[in-house]
User: Fold this.
Amino acid sequence: MAEHDDAAVDPAVDPSVDPSVDPAGLAGADVAASLFEELLRRTHLTRPFEVADVVAEEVRRALGARAVTTFWVNRERDALVPLAGGAAATRGPQDVEGTVAGRCYTSGTVIDVACAEPGWRRVFVPVLDGTDRIGAMELEVPVGEADELPHRLLLVLERYGHAVAHVLVAKRPYGDALEVAQRTRPVAVGAEMLWAALPPLTFACDGLVVSGMVEPTYDNGGDAFDYAVNREATHLAVFDAVGHGLAAAGLSTFTLGAYRHSRRAGADLVETYTAVDAAVTETFAEGAFITGVLAQLDTGTGTLRWVNAGHPPPLLLRDGRVVKELAATPATPLGMPMFGTRPAVAHEQLEPGDTVVLYTDGVVEARLPDGGMLGVAGLVDFVTREAAAHRSPPETLRRLQQVLTSPDVVRLDDDATVLLVEWRGGSERTLLPQTV
Assistant:
C-alpha cells in the first residue's frame, strides 16, 4: 500500500533486533506461540503502567520489530495517546482524523505502509477489546524482499493487538496509569463517579451492536446509560438525573446500581421500574428524581419492550431513515410520586437492520450558532446521514461526540447521552479486523 504517515518519526533501529532474522519465518507457528506465551506469562505479575513496556519488548524479541508504540484513545475519542514504554517517548499523540493510526483505530483494520528503509514495513494494528475500540499499535517489522506484509505476519499482529487489548483492560482496574493516560484535562468528581460506573462503550455479537456516548466527558454528572447482554434478552437503559454536578452524579450512579440490582434479581420491566423508583424515593430528598427509559430486546425475535419514565421517546431508524418515535404512555420519573399508576409496557417488533436510538434531552437541546436548538430533527438528520455513509454505531457516536464538543458547531447546556442499538444489521462484522 503506497501510503505514508507524514507525522511519523524515523527512530533508530533497536540494538536488540537481529537483522539476520529470516522474514519468511517471522510468523511461523513456533514464533507466534512464543510471542503470546511470553506476553501472557509476563503479564501475570505486571503492574498496569508496565504493560506497554512488556508489549514492546515481546514483539521486538519474537518478530524483530522496532519503533513499537501502544496508543490508548483519549476520553474525547479524537486522539490516540502513546502509553509509556517502547518508542512512546518519541511519538506524540496522533489525531484520529487525518493520520494512519487514526484510520486504523476508526476502521479496525490492520494497515501497513512502506518505510524509507528497504526491507521494512510500518504496521498499524487495531487494539480491540472484542469490538470495543480502545487504541492502536504502531511498529516496524522486517519483511525481507517482500513488497507487502506477509499474510501470516498480518494475522499474528492482528491477534497480538487483540491480546494486548485484553491485557490492558484486565490490568486497568489495578492502578491509575491507564485511566489517567486517557485524560487531557482535570475530571470533576461527578464525572469520576460516573465513568467508574458505566459499562464499556461498545459491545457486539452476532446480530447485535450496542454503543454508547456521554458528554461532557470531564464534567458530566446527571446522565448515564447501561446495558447487559443476557441469555433471555438484552437489557438497555438511559437515565437523566435532575440537576447538575455532584448531586446529580450521585443520583444517576445510585440509580444505575438500583437498576442492576433489580435486573440481576430477574425482575421484569414493571418490577424493575417499581423497585428503582422506591429505592430513589427512600434514599434521596424530596425533589430528587430521574427520568429514563428501561428496555428489553429479545435478540432472537427482535421484539422490543420498554417503559418510559418521563423521558424523551427513543427513535427507530430503518433503511437509513428515522421512521418513528417509539412512543409509550409515560410513567412518572423515578423518585416522583406515582399516584397509584402502574407503568405501561410498550412493544415494537423490529425488522432486521433496525437501529434504536435512546438519548437524553441534552442532545436535542444543544445550541446551534444561530441560537436555535439542534432538536430532534437535527439528531435525526445526523443519524440518517451517518447511516447513509454506512458508519457503524460506535463510529456514528464518535463523530456525534466531535460535533457536540465543537464550539463552532453547537454549545452543550446540559449533559448529553446516546445509546445506539442495532439488531441484525450486520455492522458487527465491520468492527472486526480483516483477518477475523
About this structure: The chain has eleven helices and 17 strands. Confidence is low (pLDDT under 50) at residues 1-24. The chain has two domains: 23-174, 187-431.
